[in-house]
Design goal:
Blueprint: H1 7-18, H2 23-26, H3 38-53, H4 59-66, H5 76-85, H6 92-118, H7 125-140, H8 151-167, H9 180-186, E1 195-200, H10 206-219, E2 223-228, H11 233-244, H12 247-252, H13 257-266, H14 268-271, E3 276-280, H15 287-300, E4 304-310, H16 326-344, E5 348-353, H17 375-379, E6 382-387, H18 390-393, E7 399-409, E8 415-422, E9 427-429
Parallel strand pairs: 1-5, 1-6, 2-3, 2-4, 4-5
Antiparallel strand pairs: 6-7, 7-8, 8-9
């Protein structure tokens, strides 16, 4: 025997022998692979099999079963001593959690040791970081250790969040900040583990929406991390610079390059104070690498409250053999993102492409228009499609009406709300235009204004 402490493993098995009903709590928490002692692992598997077959679990029966295969299980006297290792059967779940955590630590130590030995064969440091990130994820990816909570327990945890939310006058959950009126229609609020998927075709306001949300949050002192697979950091910074300029001033300077340049320069002072971090992955676009980067960032900057990924279809996974199966890739990527949310306890906004099939101009996009749909609508807590109608796409305008169609929202209504896509400023907002567009510089919207006083057909 080595110096490993087997006490928790013996205790969890002793708790089952004291009260076989405790195995119900253990099954989702513990597998035989979590045991460091081979004989104890075999015994746990035997107890699971007996429970599955409906056989009684008591010391005499278990001893009788183990004696049929000498050497595979602990000896009879060791089995009898297991009940002494457990102070109470009520502690079975606590023992199981300890065993699972120790197993995770062993896996992590083993992975680090193996990767350290393999370091010499890597010529590219970034490749090593990607493989290390994937290996660490696989080593630490365990079954959920969550348990069923009573309403009284859940309410206790909910109270503090509830009072804080109302004290900040924003209701339960955090708004996106696009526009106060339409925020109430669009979102019931982003909670710590909300996955909001927003889809659009190219040039239909996808990135502009993400940057507008980031700017609004950061302007309120809320930290935002943007993980981009499409736009380099310099490009994102330039677009944020445009968004940071007050819209009325930007509109006035639209045809005056010198005035516009001065406005953009003046905005830098305020921008330096915005808690926004950006990461661009040109080559290492694996979701495993990005999740490692995000967790490392959250560790260093816990004030970060929101994560934005742009965009889903550009990500890849390090899982082998899925290069031709795009749907399977997307499902793995979504699974990794949900794992990340569980780890960081932050809302994530994930942008996605919509396919190029024709949409009904009045109804707009549907769930099946998301590229790789299936897992997307299943995993998303909020699903929104952005769309510039065909009748507006030909407009050579500084701004166009933007349909925001809420297709799914777990805690709120669905339907259509109208936003403004200010193209020249790469900004999405729900506010009224700052001034009527002049005929010389802007095209006039056709048909009914999306910002009319009465919007009964768009209301939920």
């Amino acid at each position: 025997m080595n110096s490993i402490d087997y006490a928790p493993e013996k205790a969890v098995l002793g708790a089952v022998l004291l009260d076989p009903r405790s195995i119900f709590a253990l099954r989702p928490l513990l597998t035989p692979e979590d045991f460091s002692d081979h004989q104890l692992a075999q015994l746990y598997q035997l107890l699971l099999d007996m429970h599955e077959a409906g056989h009684p679990i008591d010391l005499a029966t278990v001893v009788g079963r183990t004696m049929k295969e000498p050497g595979k299980y602990p000896a009879a006297d060791e089995l009898a001593a297991l009940t002494d290792a457990a102070s109470s059967s009520a502690m079975a779940e606590a023992y199981a959690r300890t065993v699972a955590q120790l197993a995770a630590t062993r896996r992590l130590d083993g992975t680090l040791a193996r990767m350290r030995k393999e370091l010499q064969r890597y010529d590219d440091p970034s490749a090593f970081v990607r493989d290390l990130s994937s290996a660490l994820h696989n080593a630490t990816h365990q079954r959920s250790l969550d348990t069923t909570a009573s309403l009284a327990t859940a309410l206790h945890a909910y109270e503090e969040q509830f009072h804080t939310s109302w004290k900040e006058k924003r209701g339960h959950g955090t708004r996106l900040g696009i526009d106060a009126g339409r925020d109430k229609l669009l979102f019931n609020g982003l909670h710590p583990e909300t996955l909001c998927v927003i889809g659009a075709r190219p040039s239909h306001g996808k990135t502009a929406m993400g940057l507008s949300i980031a700017h609004q949050w950061a302007s309120q002192g809320r930290g935002v991390f943007i993980g981009s697979t499409e736009s380099p950091v310099n490009a994102l910074t330039g677009r944020l610079n445009q968004i940071a300029v007050p819209e009325a001033q930007y509109a006035d300077a639209y045809h005056n390059p010198q005035a516009r340049r001065q406005l953009l320069s003046l905005a830098w002072g305020d921008m330096r104070r915005l808690p926004i971090w950006m990461h661009f992955s040109r080559e290492g676009k694996t979701i495993e690498n990005m999740t490692w980067i995000v967790q490392n960032h959250i560790h260093q900057h816990p004030e970060t409250e929101l994560v934005i990924f742009d965009f889903l279809q550009n990500f890849r996974t390090s899982v082998k053999g899925l290069h031709q199966d795009k749907v399977a890739q997307i499902n793995i990527i979504l699974e990794r993102i949900k794992d990340l949310q569980h780890a960081i306890k932050r809302p994530i906004i994930l942008f996605s492409q919509l396919n190029r099939t024709d949409f009904d101009d009045e109804k707009g996009p549907m769930e099946w228009h998301f590229k790789g749909s299936g897992g997307i609508e299943q995993d998303a807590d909020i699903l929104i499609a952005l769309y510039v109608r065909k009748q507006d796409q030909h407009l050579v305008a500084r701004e166009v009406p933007l349909m925001a169609k809420v297709l799914k929202q777990r805690d709120g209504p669905t339907g259509i709300a109208w936003l403004r896509f200010v193209k020249a400023q790469t900004k999405v907002t729900g506010e009224q235009p700052v001034a009527a567009p002049s005929q010389s510089s802007l095209a006039t919207f056709q048909g009914k204004s999306p910002w009319a006083e009465k919007e009964e057909e768009e209301l939920f």
